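> forwarded from #structure-qc
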């Protein structure tokens, strides 16, 4: 067998190995990206819950007109924090959707784990003004 034939066969074997390694690497990157997306969503949900915990009693007290000036300021601050947390929450799902559209995450796993939450958010009338609606322009 000639040296060129041996080198050609060796090059083919190496290229198949490289393709296999590339697929493994892409799978690992995809997995890490999915972990980062899930962690981001989880962190933001905690921020939402924390803001709601503080605001709930203040809002109840506000209905009875018994808020002190400090409590009024606290309600204002936590209201801003809650709005920011809501916006961050929606942005994290938007970012996740972008990764889905770009096929940077596992499509089937995305559908199983996040699709329902996104549908619930989009259908939530409280957030209706935050979404672009093509037929309203």
């Amino acid at each position: 067998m000639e040296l060129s034939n041996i080198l050609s066969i060796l090059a083919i074997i190496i290229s198949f190995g490289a393709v296999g390694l590339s697929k493994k690497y892409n799978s690992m990157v995809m997995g890490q990206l999915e972990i980062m997306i899930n962690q981001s969503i989880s962190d933001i949900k905690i921020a939402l819950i924390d803001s709601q915990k503080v605001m709930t009693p203040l809002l109840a007290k506000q209905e009875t007109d018994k808020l002190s000036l400090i409590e009024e300021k606290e309600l204002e601050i936590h209201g801003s924090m809650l709005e920011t947390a809501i916006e961050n929450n929606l942005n994290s799902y938007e970012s996740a959707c972008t990764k889905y559209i770009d096929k940077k995450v596992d499509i089937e796993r995305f559908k199983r784990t996040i699709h329902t939450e996104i549908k619930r958010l989009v259908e939530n009338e409280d957030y209706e003004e935050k979404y672009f609606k093509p037929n309203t322009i």
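QC bot note: Helices lie at 3-63, 69-101, 107-113, 115-123. Residues 1 and 7 are 10 Å apart (CA to CA).
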